[in-house]
Specification:
2 domains, alpha+beta, single chain, 4 helices, Aminopeptidase
Length: 148
């Protein structure tokens, strides 16, 4: 018998909204450079009323608990978060490969060196660098593109 927990990827449902919002907040709180812009209630509203109805969302769960998710809208990965306690275990790789899209685009903050290494290791290439003027955090970002 394996001592590793079973990892389940599945489509998100509306009843997952609170758990997804908590996972997103845990991930964001792990970065000391990330400005705190929203309350937990605003996080829940964002996930429940914007992300889930408008995007294709896949969650990763283990032991009945959501530990990560990806939200895709056409060719864009709009949200991609993993509970910091679950990084480095291949879960992000599995989430990123769930849709098999021929073209994938996403934005990443320039300061997020761990995410940048992750995306580049998975074949993403930087196509544009922004100064932060178009995101609410005001942080310089990178547009990454993967062509499969």
């Amino acid at each position: 018998m394996s001592s590793f927990p079973e990892i389940l990827l599945r489509p998100a449902t509306s009843s997952d909204a609170a758990a997804i919002a908590i996972t997103m907040r845990a991930s964001l709180n792990a970065f000391d450079w990330m400005p705190l812009l929203h309350t937990p209630e605003e996080d829940l509203f964002f996930i429940r009323d914007i992300v889930l109805p408008e995007q294709q969302v896949t969650v990763v769960a283990t032991d009945g608990r959501i530990v990560g998710f990806i939200a895709v809208n056409e060719a864009w990965v709009d949200q991609f978060y993993l509970d910091p306690a679950w990084t480095g275990q291949g879960i992000g790789t599995r989430l990123l490969a769930t849709d098999g899209m021929p073209l994938v685009k996403l934005h990443c903050f320039q300061v997020n060196t761990g995410a940048r290494r992750f995306y580049e290791r998975h074949g993403f290439r930087a196509e544009a660098f922004g100064d932060g003027s178009v995101n609410e955090e005001g942080l310089p970002d990178i547009r990454y593109v993967l062509r499969r």
